Amino acid sequence: MHYTSILPCNETTAAIIQASLDVPTQELATSGAAYWASAACLYSSNSTLTDQAWKTWVRINNYGYIPSAAAGIFFIAAFGLSFLLHAYQLFRSRRWLYICTEVGLVLELWGWGTRYHAAEDITTGYVFQLAGLTCAPTMFATNLYCLFTQFAATQDPAILRELGARKTQRWLIIVEVLAIAVQVGGASLAATAGGKSLFDIGCNIMLAGIILQLVLTVVFLAAVVAYFTRLRRATEERVLNVRNRIGFLFWGVVVMDALIIIRGAYRTAELTGGIWGPIATSQIALILGDAVPMLLVVYGLNATHTMWTVVPFERAKEHESTDIGLVQRRTSNGSSLEKADAAYLGGC
């Protein structure tokens, strides 16, 4: 895109650009003079002045860099493929709560689509991509909680003795919805802000929502480890082997939750340092701290979908006595856990 300016490129605008080179980014971002001066000289015949104008232009726009079109294409394709796989699994399994993952993937696609467009026009879409990529992981976390509680509902209720599977799921979703509401509220305020003050308030509200989600995911990880430790004690010692259906589910949940924690830590550091801080203005940090972890999470949700990990236990439970928990029951033909694992290994 060829940018234009209301000012001519002359000695005055050149002096403004040169003076801006040593100005902190946060202060520079509010300078109208530097904005128009750098835009005026982006295509100057003086190569040195052009380089200085582009450095100022990139810093004065919120990204702090020119978003990579190649990265935009890659993540649009990668998240898009997972979206299609989740759509198939959603309608095949009729587990409608997985619509949350689809909504999260739409937000990821929106965010990366906006960034791809920004590769051509850096002046557009910063707040919208920030809002989309910030809110999307809350949707993935919601399905992660549901995956765990749906599995726990097929096992001995005594193992999750504090609350029970349904109450645990209810409270996890309530807190997650609260985190989503706070983040969406902050994103909406930032997107419609008419000045820097309201924009900063919106970002701080988003930060509060991210911290709330980060705390919840850490607590959830501790609860998952405690639950599966109890489950292992109630069954055979090798129940958490990765080639065991339960083990595959356990390690999948642990890894996905850890990735959400990593992403939450990145976003917390980013917004704490401000949108013109060194983390927020690093494209590499965004890709490694947010995009890659979330890409692994959505494919992890594909791999650990309840179609493969929970439904076999639900079917086994239907054919067993309801008086004793599934993990404590054994039949003459072997335990229902063994049957489910045999089916899993047979499908590998």
UniProtKB/TrEMBL annotation:
Keyword hit for GTP-binding: no
GO cellular component annotations of the record: membrane
Subcellular location field: Membrane
Keywords carried by this UniProt record: Membrane, Transmembrane, Transmembrane helix
Matching Pfam families: RTA1 (PF04479)
Major subcellular location class: membrane
This protein's name: Methylcrotonoyl-CoA carboxylase subunit alpha
Organism: Rhodotorula toruloides
